[in-house]
């Protein structure tokens, strides 16, 4: 007879690998199939934008008057080298959509990065410092929220003139209030918790408390809101471009492509429809993915 | 006797509320000597936590310190700028919070949280670079070892939720002791813990106090804890100190009816089968208190003379009591 097995209780537990709440939430997200599929679509769009020069079959700005309004490949008169057809100047629509993704995704990301950074700082200051800082920031937020977004952006674009950086500025000017409100609300809750009090009792400075104690704990809702807002910003950019206030021709942008095809939507429906579908698909994918993020990161949606 | 480490005189802290001014701490004198453990006893709302929040300069709006002097090692803490006060907190006085389960930041590893204290207060470390990081890590691991957490190096990388309640309380103590403060304020260090862990944590505090020669203020509502661990005890009621003296004497011969009531309401084996005798009535509303003895309405011995303001009276060497029935008036 061999020796009886040692009682399990006495076996020293191997130190486990540290697992943060963040990693656990990420695993929850990965288990959500629809959200994962949407995330894959978003990643594909991003890859397409980054690799545009290698993926696009043609130069997006190359005109060919013999191919004016050439239909997509599966319709009579179409050919597979111009899979989605051509626009009124004979430019390849597929290539223009691929290059247009660069504009949409770049502007969306840039606006969200700028707006979230400003929003986090303003929200932390307003929620933690309170007093006149809070009053000033909150009133500015209220005023900005009172403006209809598109009209505000149109006004700014009219003042600053069109251009890539001006669009980013015009959208970020108003977009920061969304993360700011979220951060302020979460900060108001978090600043009363014991570990913030404990940090104060240890002589931590206000900067330290705001950035090191509070910020890591409120980051999840901020990430979720930012991704949801990204879809919104992409639609706004498309709207501005549709109105002719966005990126200037000949640079391909989905909004201006939809506008280009508007005049002959009955004779050549493909000119407007495919860029419109691209907007729809990207925005939908971002929305579903961010919904999955929220379900994974918001404790209220967990069992 | 040498000058006390902490000397608080006539402290008065008030909270402006919509219903009126709440005087949470009313003329409290505290002195803590070097190497001593002072127990502060009182029920919820008696002002024991607010007194020491005032000492730390951590009273939150709408509260404010209205009067009094707070001397730490002869330095007036009320006269310091916020920046100077921050340098004192954590370095000279440290505080552990009531609830160990919520007082650690869930988003940071334990190591990061201990490192913060060294980062803020320890000037003996290398200025920057990996030498500094390594020094901080070594010191942090040493602190975890000091409070009895095994395999400290690897546990530094874990998050608070991976520790049990008792372990978290130990970590809190490790953080508080990181810079070897002269005074540790332990605000109900054991309320969130079960009894066996309570005993371990208190043993730990007592042992470290002896080893580092620091002073400890133990805020609690458990007289048993005080009896076992404190040299002196101060009983608070409705924002005032009502009795003070060496622990053994106060417990053997309580002078104030409230202290007697507190001791009588502790269940003990000798009185098995008899009902516990709680103190009747409620703590008075702290808004617009009449000048009379604060314990008047609940006191079994009250008489007309108690309706006049009652001052602290001397009741033997090192003993003071706020009751007209015992002690002698101080000149």
Automatic annotation (TrEMBL), chain B:
It comes from the Bacteria. CDD domains: ABC_NikE_OppD_transporters. Pfam families: ABC_tran, oligo_HPY. It is found in: Cell inner membrane. One of its GO terms (cellular component) is plasma membrane. Coiled coil: none annotated. One of its GO terms (molecular function) is ATP binding. Residues 8-263 form the ABC transporter domain. It is a peripheral membrane protein. One of its GO terms (biological process) is transmembrane transport. Keywords: ATP-binding, Cell inner membrane, Cell membrane, Membrane, Nucleotide-binding, Translocase, Transport. SMART domains: AAA (SM00382). Belongs to the ABC transporter superfamily. This is ATP-binding cassette domain-containing protein. It comes from Frigidibacter albus. The lineage of its organism: Bacteria, Pseudomonadati, Pseudomonadota, Alphaproteobacteria, Rhodobacterales.
């Amino acid at each position: 007879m061999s020796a009886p097995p040692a009682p399990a209780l006495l076996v020293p537990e191997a130190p486990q690998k540290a697992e943060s709440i963040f990693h656990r939430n990420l695993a929850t997200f990965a288990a959500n199939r629809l959200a994962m599929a949407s995330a894959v679509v978003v990643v594909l769009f991003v890859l397409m934008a980054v690799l545009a020069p290698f993926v696009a079959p043609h130069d997006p700005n190359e005109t060919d008057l013999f191919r004016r309004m050439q239909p997509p490949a599966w319709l009579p008169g179409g050919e597979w080298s111009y899979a989605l057809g051509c626009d009124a100047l004979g430019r390849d629509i597929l290539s223009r959509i691929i290059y247009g993704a660069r504009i949409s995704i770049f502007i969306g990301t840039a606006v969200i990065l700028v707006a979230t950074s400003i929003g986090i700082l303003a929200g932390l200051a307003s929620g933690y410092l309170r007093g006149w800082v809070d009053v000033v920031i909150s009133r500015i937020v209220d005023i900005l929220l009172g403006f209809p977004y598109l009209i505000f952006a149109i006004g700014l674009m009219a003042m600053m003139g069109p251009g890539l950086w001006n669009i980013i500025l015009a959208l970020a000017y108003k977009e920061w209030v969304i993360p700011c409100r979220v951060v302020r609300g979460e900060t108001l809750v978090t600043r009363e918790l014991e570990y913030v009090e404990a940090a104060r009792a240890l002589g931590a400075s206000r900067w330290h408390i705001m950035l090191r104690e509070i910020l890591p704990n409120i980051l999840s809702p901020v990430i979720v809101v930012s991704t949801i807002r990204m879809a919104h910003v992409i639609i706004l950019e498309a709207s501005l471009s549709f109105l002719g206030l966005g990126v200037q021709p000949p640079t391909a942008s989905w909004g201006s492509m939809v506008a280009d095809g508007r005049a002959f939507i009955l004779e050549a429906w493909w000119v407007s429809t495919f860029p419109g579908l691209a907007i729809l698909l990207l925005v939908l994918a971002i929305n579903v993915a961010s919904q999955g993020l929220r379900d994974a990161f918001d404790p209220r949606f967990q069992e | 006797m040498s000058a006390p480490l902490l000397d608080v005189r006539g402290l008065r802290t008030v909270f402006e509320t919509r219903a009126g001014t709440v005087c949470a701490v009313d003329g409290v004198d505290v002195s803590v000597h070097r190497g001593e453990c002072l127990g502060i006893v009182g029920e919820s709302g008696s002002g024991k936590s607010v007194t020491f929040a005032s000492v730390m300069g951590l009273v939150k709006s709408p509260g404010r310190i209205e009067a009094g002097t707070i001397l730490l090692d002869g330095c007036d803490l009320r006269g310091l700028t916020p920046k100077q006060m921050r340098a004192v907190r954590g370095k000279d006085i440290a505080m552990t919070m009531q609830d160990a389960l919520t007082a650690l930041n869930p988003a940071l590893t334990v190591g990061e949280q201990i490192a913060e204290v060294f980062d803020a207060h320890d000037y003996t470390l290398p200025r920057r670079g990996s030498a500094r990081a390594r020094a901080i890590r070594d010191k942090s691991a040493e602190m975890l070892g000091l409070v009895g957490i095994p395999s400290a190096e690897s546990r530094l990388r874990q998050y608070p939720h991976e520790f049990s309640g008792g372990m978290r309380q130990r970590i809190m103590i490790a953080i508080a002791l990181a810079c070897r403060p002269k005074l540790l304020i332990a605000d109900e260090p054991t309320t969130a813990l079960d009894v066996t862990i309570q005993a371990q944590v208190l043993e730990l505090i007592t042992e470290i106090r002896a080893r580092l020669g620091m002073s400890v203020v133990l805020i609690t509502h458990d007289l048993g804890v005080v009896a076992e661990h404190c040299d002196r005890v101060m009983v608070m009621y409705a924002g005032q100190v009502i009795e003070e003296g060496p622990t053994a004497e106060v417990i053997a011969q309580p002078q104030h009816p409230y202290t007697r009531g507190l001791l009588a309401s502790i269940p003990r084996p000798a009185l098995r089968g008899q009902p516990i005798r709680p103190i009747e009535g409620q703590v008075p509303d702290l808004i617009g208190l009449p000048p009379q003895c604060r314990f008047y309405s609940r006191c079994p011995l009250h008489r007309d003379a108690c309706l006049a303001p009652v001052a602290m009276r001397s009741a033997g060497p090192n003993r003071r009591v706020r009751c007209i029935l015992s002690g002698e008036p101080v000149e």
